[in-house]
């Protein structure tokens, strides 16, 4: 459900940067001989030449569209070059495109808050950078406006009777413009510079929209492509939305957009201006009605969320038609493949970015035999995510079996009943979400046992603290003791707030004397494996048996090492 967000009264400069047929550009950088040729990237599925997922602008001139398959594209454009998406585990491997997208993001993030919206699109909040430019080096003070900036498309700017670049320069350098448009002019210069840096460092072209909110910036970035940018002044918002088809607006492409068209006769976003706020809220509820009223006026308070990394990881596979999975065993086989890939990406994210995902979710589309509507009803299931390929595979299978029981209305998923072919899975995916950054320092787990504040420190400091604060000592086993391998843990405090010389306070000394014991054989190693690496090393240090020093008493002989033989 769309949520209305009030727009800030302060002026903002928001840019939406969209890469031009990005998958094709990545392949052309990898294979330079493809540059300038009609090219398309196709799916790994070779049926009818594979489905097109990206089409170069050279191929579009011949009428090639993304909805086509490879064979049809060749009939329309015999010269087209079809490049197959890399394949791993019998499914598409998009890592080459993800990595290329990360290159672009690292460049765009140099000038402002950056939100990575997908592999090939980014939002930028350039307000601070534009304010700084306006106060220190405004467009009117520049000796020359970069050529790329002068190629900008400024909505509502009349170009009749003059050069386009001349008109653009005059608009950028207006001294009588209001503060909001002056900021947009600075934003246009900053975005053009960033786009040129992306081109220079990666060879990729991109298009951009510059406006005062995310909604308008995204609309503008798609208006003139490839390798161009569009500016949306406040005065042009009404005209832009007046002619914008309602289905082109984000969140209006589905049922809500159809309802507006069929029930209210709304064909463009501007048509919503004919309805009052009360009427829209009456028809669609308070939230959706308020949101519709806002977008008709170009109002959107959605902020750019600083995020350079993806907010989730997901792996999926489709099984159309006769390829549908019809047994739990076949689903388990594919879940293992998907979970293995997901686990690799999670571990890479942890190693490179120090982030940990919290939630594992399984999505699927399935059908029941003789029930055409059932594919809409397969439930999604989630659970806490446990790191490790085997654990993710185990949990994903449990989620599927729970969803299948609910889908079929069974009390349990009967593997033996698979052969009846009463259901089939046409799509399967697993995803990891709620990804959070791990603490910058390492917390010693001992501090939880001490009852103190589990403050964090660097890994080296934590290691030194561990050696100073606590040492696992072997307990002297009494002859009557029946608990093997017990370790007594004695903790000691070091001066924080205690005696004048930094020694322990008497109350601390009393607390130090508290002991805790555990049986090594009762500790499940798999539990230790789920702890952060620093804590794993620490715990394993406790569990590692300490060697006792060989102390020989004075005057002893080898006889002391042999117990006396008891007489019968």
UniProtKB/TrEMBL annotation:
Main subcellular localisation: nucleus
> What GO molecular-function term can you cite, just one?
damaged DNA binding
> Which Enzyme Commission numbers does its entry carry?
2.7.7.7
Q: Reaction(s) catalyzed by this protein?
A: DNA(n) + a 2'-deoxyribonucleoside 5'-triphosphate = DNA(n+1) + diphosphate
Enumerate the transmembrane spans: none
UmuC domain segment(s): 14-253
Q: What is this protein called?
A: DNA polymerase eta
């Amino acid at each position: 459900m769309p949520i209305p967000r009030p727009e800030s009264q302060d002026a903002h400069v928001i840019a939406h940067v969209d890469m031009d047929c990005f998958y094709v550009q990545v392949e052309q950088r990898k294979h330079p001989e493809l540059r300038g040729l009609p090219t398309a990237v196709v799916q790994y599925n070779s049926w009818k030449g594979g489905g097109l997922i990206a089409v170069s602008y050279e191929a579009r001139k011949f009428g090639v569209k993304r909805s086509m398959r490879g064979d049809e594209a060749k009939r329309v454009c015999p010269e087209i070059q079809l490049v197959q998406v890399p394949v791993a585990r019998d499914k598409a491997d998009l890592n080459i495109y993800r990595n290329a997208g990360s290159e672009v993001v690292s460049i765009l993030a140099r000038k402002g808050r950056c939100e990575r919206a997908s592999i090939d699109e980014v939002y930028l909040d350039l307000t601070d950078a534009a304010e700084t430019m306006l106060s220190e080096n405004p467009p009117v003070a520049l000796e020359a406006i970069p050529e790329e900036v002068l190629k900008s498309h400024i909505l509502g700017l009349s170009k009749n009777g003059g050069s386009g670049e001349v008109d653009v320069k005059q608009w950028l350098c207006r001294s009588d413009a209001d503060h909001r448009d002056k900021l947009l002019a600075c934003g246009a210069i900053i975005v053009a510079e960033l786009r040129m840096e992306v081109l220079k460092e990666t060879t990729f072209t991109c298009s951009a929209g510059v406006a005062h909110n995310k909604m308008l910036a995204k609309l503008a970035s798609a208006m003139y492509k490839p390798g161009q940018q569009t500016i949306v002044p406040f005065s042009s918002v009404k005209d832009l939305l007046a002619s914008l088809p309602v289905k082109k607006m984000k969140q209006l492409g589905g049922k809500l957009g159809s309802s507006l068209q069929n029930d209210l006769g709304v064909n463009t976003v501007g048509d919503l201006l004919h309805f009052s706020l009360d009427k829209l809220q009456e028809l669609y509820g308070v939230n959706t009605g308020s949101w519709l009223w806002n977008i008709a006026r170009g109002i959107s308070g959605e902020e750019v969320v600083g995020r350079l990394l993806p907010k989730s990881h997901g792996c999926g596979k489709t099984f159309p038609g006769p390829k549908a999975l019809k047994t739990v065993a076949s689903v388990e086989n594919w879940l293992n493949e998907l979970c293995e890939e997901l686990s690799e990406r999670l571990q890479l994210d942890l190693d490179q970015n120090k982030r940990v995902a919290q939630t594992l979710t399984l999505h699927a589309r399935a059908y029941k035999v003789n029930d055409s509507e059932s594919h809409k009803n397969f439930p999604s299931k989630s659970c806490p995510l446990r790191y490790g390929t085997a654990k993710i595979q185990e949990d994903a299978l449990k989620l599927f079996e729970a969803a299948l029981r609910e889908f079929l209305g069974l009390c349990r998923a009967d593997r033996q009943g698979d052969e009846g072919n009463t259901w089939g899975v046409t799509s399967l995916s697993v995803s990891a979400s709620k990804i959070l950054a791990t603490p910058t320092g390492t917390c010693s787990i001992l501090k939880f046992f001490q009852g103190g504040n589990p403050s964090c420190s660097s890994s080296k400091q934590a290691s030194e603290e561990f050696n100073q604060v606590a040492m696992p000592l072997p307990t002297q086993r009494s002859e009557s003791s029946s608990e093997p391998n017990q370790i007594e843990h004695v903790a000691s405090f070091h001066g924080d707030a205690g005696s004048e010389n930094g020694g322990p306070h008497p109350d601390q000394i009393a607390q130090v004397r508290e002991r805790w014991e555990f049986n090594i054989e009762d500790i499940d190693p798999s539990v230790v494996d789920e702890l952060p690496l620093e804590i794993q090393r620490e715990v394993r240090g406790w569990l590692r048996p300490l060697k006792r020093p060989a102390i020989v008493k004075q005057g002893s002989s080898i006889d002391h090492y042999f117990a006396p033989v008891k007489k019968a």
